[in-house]
Amino acid sequence: MYTLPALPYDYAALEPAISEEIMHLHHQKHHQGYVNKLNAALSQRPEASLSLEQLLRQAKSLPEDIRTAVINNGGGHYNHSLFWQIMSPNGGGEPNGRLLADIVQKYGSFQQFVDAFSNKALGVFGSGWAWLMPNMDIVTTQNQINPIMDGEPSPILGLDVWEHAYYLDYKNVRADYVKAWWNVVNWPEVEKRYVSEV
Ligand code: MN
Questions:
Q1: Which pTM value belongs to this model?
Q2: What CA dihedral angle connects 172, 138, 109 and 182, to 10 degrees?
Q3: CA-CA 20 to 30 A from 74: which of 26, 60, 144, 192?
Q4: How far does residue 149's CA lie from ligand 1's centre (Å)?
Q5: What is the average pLDDT value for the chain, to the nearest integer?
Q6: 101: CA distance to ligand 1 center in Å?
Q7: Cα–chain-centroid distance for residue 145?
Q8: pLDDT in tens, 12-50
């Protein structure tokens, strides 16, 4: 059985960037829904004993009758579990140390990285995610696809640009959501993930 992780902060903690109402729906309804559907798809199946990451790393070679459910709902579970962790009410600002140095080396400055990541996130057509990979590439995926399904390392930062992540607060203006989101990025957590992947 896969289970919904508790949020590491209160539902209202990310305001004003993300409202309590969105956080509540996003965690209790959307994320819980992915967990429930994943468990339903894998009930009575040996694959249910795999860790979530193990499951997703072999998602594309799973039996056809569970493959799509795992990609959609297992991906949703994994992506949201990461998303809650890389945000914090004490977030924002810039990273430190090696992560900042490597971002600056690749993008020229932290602000140029923010602009590049934001542009990628704004360019996702429909529902999907923008990711920062441990090699400093910025990639995007559709729906609940995660790069680990294609044999890549785990992303160290991710931004949910599904409309359910922002529509109640920002209507159709994804750019305002992306701009506000930088104020809640939990850089110490991103740095921790970076150090463990490189
Ligand atoms: Mn979402």
A1: 0.97
A2: 40
A3: 192
A4: 18
A5: 97
A6: 30
A7: 10
A8: 999 999 999 999 999 999 999 999 999 999 999 999 999
